[in-house]
Backbone:
């Protein structure tokens, strides 16, 4: 019964946002391509789950807007920039795709963003993290939806310093992505009165982190910032549990951690880990109801949607509203301009806006991983420590050096 | 307390110990490769995937049958070893008369299949595997805290490595094995079933990889790609040691683990490349490897 | 006892006269097909496939005619594409100079890696090339100019010789086709030169070649450098065509892929790698819609080729028609 209520509330919410007057009822057709990593590293945080989210968004939209005909295709970029750009070129050129969405992996996302601009189509990024997408490499055809590195670094860094974690030691993956995370977090820590005691740069895909953790342990820093991702983060935390890092009073801050990583660690090891996300499935009734629908669509009862997948839903919804308002998807720049003009409003991310540089603005949440005893049901990973208001969560417009803003 | 190159001695000792633990995995894996190579003349590219299968088997045993870590240490390698023997019977055995490179290509293809399947069914993020109760905690050694599990890793892998060396170099069975690699026709004339011996050897080498996988499950991320990056390093270890020698594989494995551990202190950025650099130097000085004989 | 790799693949009874017509005829068919292909097939796909075809041919020069299996050819392909992309984007080189820069980089890297790798034979050779390539992958990852996992994006195509605008798809296609054909003919020329004959002799029986007075190490090294250089030419061209250089191109799966291309098409055949590259790239592009199963299917093709079709597509065809291809 409860589920039914929340579902109908959710449907009602959607209707109010998208209801159309009958006079507008002329046929508009749109084609959306979900480009994701279906078979490799990011298949869990995006992948087939993103396609499922896009399907839900289209189904919800179609109910209210029978005059818009939406087609959906999807592809696997296999984490290769050339495969990704090959498929996207073909989509835009010969298959009349109007919107490409998701694209985890910054390399592929930057390539796709370029192509979308050249061919005047639309690209909504949900899966990739690079804040350059709305910074020096921004363009008028790209919207960055869910999160980015600056927001993660700043959110976690600032919030932890404010709650007493004022000395930091970084474990940094030794490549551009890790360096960027470390730099942005360190800036946030120092700006809020914290101190960085040291750092160690480890190569990507390191198996054994014990040696780096010993260095972190001897630094006596209160917080160990993990400026790495995926398997490296998991291996760091696993080794940390063994060497008694958390028991010794130090705290791990994951700068790019997803629910799927927490699941891979198990709560017993991951407990106490602090991280930032922009969406969590167990945050409220609307999210829980949507999660049930997503699980049915995805045919995966035990899996839980990530913020990336929720972002795909939200992004597709807002895009379709803009297309319906313009009654055409042909001019990519015009569609993005329309998207920026109208405030966003959807059940998952609530009300928000898209800035001139293409950055979508919404609240972010500082979360802490629960202990096994606190976790009541499967997927019950986090407790909410703080909400970072939309206005503070993302990089200020002037700091991004986006050419769309300055000139 | 004294210092060496600006690093406190106690930190150095702990890093040495950690390197030794890391080396345990290199030793187990390169030992398996050496055993297989000695008998089949094949470089087993599937080794990384079979290491991963060991860890996955441990996870699945716990998940579906409730079999815990200790029995899994035996059961998982046996299961994966049996899969290996099936692979040898159905595929590898047809390649012995061809260039060795075909063995490399076939096992490379198999590695892709196994990894791909694991990813399709279990995702790429990884699976949780708890440490057994008895091994949680650590010893205080004065200069560092040594987790019990790490101590266990060193003891277990040293035992397995030395037992393997003993069987191959010092027993009758081992003598047959060594004889069969030198002259299979003659060994057959003594009434020994050489093809069966080959199958068994491959299964054993694979089981060693799976054993390393089970050992890794509680401390490393159990994911489909856990073996693929490791195996290339192990290849370099094998080139450095020289394939011919069982003891060579063990010693080089532990030794390079220590060197890598030290690099993590003095020059962490290079810790992934140091083994490759050593390989290049060894090739310049002793092309046959440290323990190898020139073919 | 042992069969060498290429001997296992090319064993059709070839009469000396057949050589006179079958290869030129096949070449003419290939050129004609590639000339009209853009009318029917998406040109971006064709250009990408042509770059990989050249890459596979370069790789095949080493294994098919020198009997040396390199498992690290991504090193030359990827680093060349980085240098070409960097020189075109940051230093403002015109495309012809950018491609030259990339190609020369590959040649130098090939010289260094090759002189280490040829110290061992067979499987060791494969493992050493793999390890060296992995080492250079880590350098590529850590160095600033490569842009880490973002890669080098938005590489300008520029104007060829200051005249021809390569942003135009037709111009770009013709350029890529000419580069490919030049590389292909060069490899063909190498194979049929006295140098190529010595190389084949070394592949069949190295001790005998040594006893005949050939300094086999020099021949092997030269073959290695040539192969690396041409792989670099392919990588540089790809960077200009696709306007990206990324980590994918230097990572070890790329080394595996080029082996697969040559194997599918037919090791030690002249046209095999071209066919193989087109098959694999088509598979990647069109299977992209299927997702998920790409890795498994690639692995299965490896296994099937090794167990059942060691001659590859072109090798089987040549054997069936009893001609040389």
Residues:
């Amino acid at each position: 019964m409860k589920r039914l209520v929340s579902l109908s509330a959710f449907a009602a919410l959607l209707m109010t946002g998208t209801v159309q007057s009958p006079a507008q009822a002329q046929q508009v057709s749109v084609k959306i391509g979900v480009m994701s990593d279906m078979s490799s590293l990011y298949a869990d945080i995006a992948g087939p789950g993103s396609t499922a989210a896009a399907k839900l968004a289209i189904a919800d939209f179609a109910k209210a807007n029978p005059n818009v005909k939406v087609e959906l295709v999807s592809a696997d970029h296999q984490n290769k920039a050339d495969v990704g750009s090959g498929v996207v070129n073909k989509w835009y050129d010969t298959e009349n795709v109007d919107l490409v969405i998701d694209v985890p992996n910054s390399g592929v996302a930057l390539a796709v963003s370029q192509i979308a601009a050249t061919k005047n189509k639309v690209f909504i990024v949900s899966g990739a993290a690079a804040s350059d997408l709305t910074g020096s490499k921004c363009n008028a055809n790209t919207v960055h939806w869910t999160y980015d590195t600056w927001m993660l670094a700043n959110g976690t860094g600032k919030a932890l310093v404010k709650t007493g974690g004022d000395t930091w030691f970084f474990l940094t993956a030794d490549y551009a992505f890790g360096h960027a995370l470390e730099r942005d977090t360190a800036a946030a820590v120092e700006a809020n009165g914290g101190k960085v005691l040291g750092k160690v740069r480890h190569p990507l895909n390191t198996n054994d982190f014990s040696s780096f953790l010993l260095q972190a342990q001897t630094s006596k820093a209160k917080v160990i910032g993990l400026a790495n991702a995926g398997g490296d983060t998991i291996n760091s935390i696993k080794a940390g549990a063994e060497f008694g890092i958390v028991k010794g009073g130090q705290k791990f801050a994951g700068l790019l951690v997803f629910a799927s990583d927490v699941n891979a660690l198990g709560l017993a090891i991951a407990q106490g880990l602090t991280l930032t996300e922009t969406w969590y499935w167990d945050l409220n009734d609307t999210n829980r109801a949507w999660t049930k629908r997503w699980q049915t669509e995805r045919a995966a009862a035990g899996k839980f949607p990530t913020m990336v997948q929720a972002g795909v839903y939200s992004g597709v919804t807002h895009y379709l509203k803009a297309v319906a308002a313009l009654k055409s998807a042909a001019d990519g720049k015009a569609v993005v301009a329309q998207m920026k003009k109208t405030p966003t409003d959807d059940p998952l991310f609530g009300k928000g806006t898209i800035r001139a540089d293409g950055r979508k603005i919404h609240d972010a949440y500082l979360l802490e991983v629960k202990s096994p005893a606190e976790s009541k049901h499967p997927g019950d990973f986090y407790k909410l420590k703080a909400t970072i208001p939309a206005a503070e969560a993302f990089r200020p417009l002037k700091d991004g050096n986006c050419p769309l803003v300055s000139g | 307390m004294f210092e060496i190159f600006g690093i406190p001695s106690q930190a150095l000792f702990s890093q040495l110990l950690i390197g030794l633990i890391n080396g345990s995995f290199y030793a187990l894996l390169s030992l398996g490769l050496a055993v297989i190579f000695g008998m089949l003349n094949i470089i087993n590219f599937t080794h990384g995937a079979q290491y991963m299968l060991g860890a996955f088997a441990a996870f699945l045993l716990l998940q579906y049958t409730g079999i815990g870590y200790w029995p899994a240490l035996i059961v998982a390698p046996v299961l994966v070893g049996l899969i290996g023997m099936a692979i040898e019977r159905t595929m590898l055995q047809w390649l012995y008369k061809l260039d060795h490179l075909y063995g490399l290509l076939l096992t490379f293809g198999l590695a892709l299949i196994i990894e791909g399947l694991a990813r399709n069914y279990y995702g790429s993020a990884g699976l949780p595997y708890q440490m057994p109760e008895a091994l949680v905690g650590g010893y205080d050694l004065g200069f560092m805290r040594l987790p019990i599990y790490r101590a266990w890793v060193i003891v277990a892998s040293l035992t397995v490595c030395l037992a393997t060396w003993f069987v191959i170099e010092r027993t009758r069975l081992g003598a047959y094995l060594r004889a069969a690699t030198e002259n299979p026709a003659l060994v057959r004339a003594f009434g020994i079933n050489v093809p069966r011996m080959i199958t068994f050897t491959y299964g054993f080498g694979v089981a060693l990889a799976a054993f390393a996988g089970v050992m890794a499950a509680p401390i490393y991320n159990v994911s489909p790609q856990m073996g693929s990056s490791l195996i290339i390093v192990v290849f370099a270890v094998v080139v450095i040691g020289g394939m011919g020698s069982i003891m060579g594989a063990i010693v080089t494995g532990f030794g390079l683990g220590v060197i890598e551990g030290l690099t993590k202190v003095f020059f962490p950025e290079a810790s992934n490349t140091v083994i490759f650099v050593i390989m290049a130097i060894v090739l310049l000085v002793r092309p046959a490897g440290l323990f190898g004989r020139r073919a | 006892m042992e069969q060498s790799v290429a001997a296992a693949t090319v064993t059709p009874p070839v009469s000396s006269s057949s050589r006179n017509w079958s290869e030129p005829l096949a070449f003419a068919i290939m050129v004609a097909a590639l000339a009209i292909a853009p009318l029917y097939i998406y040109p971006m796909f064709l250009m990408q496939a042509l770059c990989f075809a050249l890459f596979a041919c370069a790789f095949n020069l080493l294994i098919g005619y020198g009997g040396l299996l390199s498992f690290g050819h991504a090193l030359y392909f990827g680093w060349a594409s980085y240098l070409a992309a960097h020189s075109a984007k940051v230093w403002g080189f015109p495309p012809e100079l950018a491609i030259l820069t990339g190609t020369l980089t590959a040649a130098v890297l090939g010289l260094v890696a090759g002189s280490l790798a040829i110290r061992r034979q067979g499987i060791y050779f494969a493992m050493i090339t793999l390890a060296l390539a992995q080492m250079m992958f880590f350098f590529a990852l850590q160095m600033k100019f490569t842009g880490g996992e973002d890669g080098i994006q938005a590489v300008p195509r520029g104007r060829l010789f200051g005249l021809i605008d390569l942003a135009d798809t037709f111009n770009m296609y013709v350029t890529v086709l000419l580069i490919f054909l030049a590389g292909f003919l060069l490899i063909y020329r190498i194979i049929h030169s006295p140098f190529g004959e010595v190389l084949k002799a070394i592949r069949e029986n190295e001790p005998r070649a040594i006893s005949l007075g050939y300094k086999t190490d020099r021949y092997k090294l030269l073959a290695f450098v040539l192969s690396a250089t041409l792989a670099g030419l392919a990588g540089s061209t790809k960077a200009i065509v696709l306007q990206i250089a990324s980590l994918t191109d230097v990572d070890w799966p790329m080394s595996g892929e080029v082996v697969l291309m040559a194997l599918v098409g037919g090791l030690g055949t002249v046209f095999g790698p071209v066919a193989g590259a087109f098959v694999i790239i088509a598979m990647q592009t069109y299977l992209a819609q299927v997702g998920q199963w790409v890795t498994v299917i690639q692995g299965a093709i490896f296994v099937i080729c090794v167990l059942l079709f060691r001659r590859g597509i072109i090798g089987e065809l040549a054997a069936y028609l009893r001609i040389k291809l």
Chain C has one domain: 5-321. The longest helix of chain C spans residues 216-242. Residues 198 and 313 of chain C are 27 Å apart (CA to CA). Chain C touches chain B through 46 residues (CB under 8 Å).
